[in-house]
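Sample 3 of the quickstart, ligand phosphoric acid mono(formamide)ester:
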Amino acid sequence: RHHVLSLADFTAAEYDTVLQTAASFQEVLSRRTKKVPTLQGQVVANLFFEPSTRTRSSFELAAKRLSADTLNFAAATSSMTKGETILDTAKTYLAMGTDIMVVRHREAGVPNAIAQEMDRLGVRVSVLNAGDGQHEHPSQALLDLFTICSLIDPNHPRLELLKGKKIAIVGDILHSRVARSNIWSFIASGAELHLAAPPTLLPKLFAEYILEESGEEDAGTQGHWDAENEEDTGTKGHNNVVGKNENLSASPHPPLSASSSQLFLHWQLEPALQDADFVMTLRLQKERMTAHLLPSLREYHQLFGITTTKLQLCKPNVKVLHPGPVNRGVEISSELMDDPEFSLIQSQVTSGVAVRMALLYLLGSGKA
Ligand code: CP
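Result:
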């Protein structure tokens, strides 16, 4: 693999390579010096066309811990304000000898476009997607995976540790690139994945599939979706079913048969939380919403906000994740966010450096 743009085609072996490599870098980071000479002489350019706190800093620190030289670009203070294009910006960094480009953009597909341009030019530059629009955020999902797997087995984090675990992803799934990458990795692990959101914040594709499967319009408030059939479902149905099902939350039906599926959809929180091992909560991404989609924040917190009280439905040792940034008191209570018994939010940030070291190392050393 020359670029990391999506987790859709990641193999189990690739997940395990990243997890194991990250574990060895976690050990390096626990040493006094914290640094290895692995990427000495290489250049890592952080091309962030959209704001970031943790992803950009984490990639920068990861590159520095590997002894690479780093270049940081922010669109607002760049020559894009004078009309320079994205591809010309990337080619400018190429001309300075960049080996790895870490790219974030508010539009889906920009990292892919830069990767295609580098391939077309015949240069050996790797592109890492650091979050593109509503599409994917692979390094975030890999650090989420690492955080969970290394909690279960710190010495040997691996994909199979999640087999049979119940994982709930709650919130604005429609606009979440993190959720899309999480879905690929958690499904690949063999986990039982439950998505819970108001009907307006679940991708329409999923809701259409529920209706298609049930053969009726009022299919109920729950359903399941088979990741392998995603492409098929995309060609089915043109009804505005998300809107229709908004009326159904008052009359829940039993869930559809789920015996062959790992993915469950819920338009209520409680079935997703019931006996969950891990709960991932997501921010309402107001910057990607049209105004009519934005729910009342108080009502949203009541219905879908995660609190210590609601966690009582989960397994007793449940852990809570959040990719950040957090809107305290909306998708998660402030008290729960800061509760070290349940919250893995700070561990996720810490894990991010080791996981991004692993990605940069695997791409930079040609071992990916
Ligand atoms: N999780 C995440 O992508 O955070 P930032 O937007 O701060 O990078």
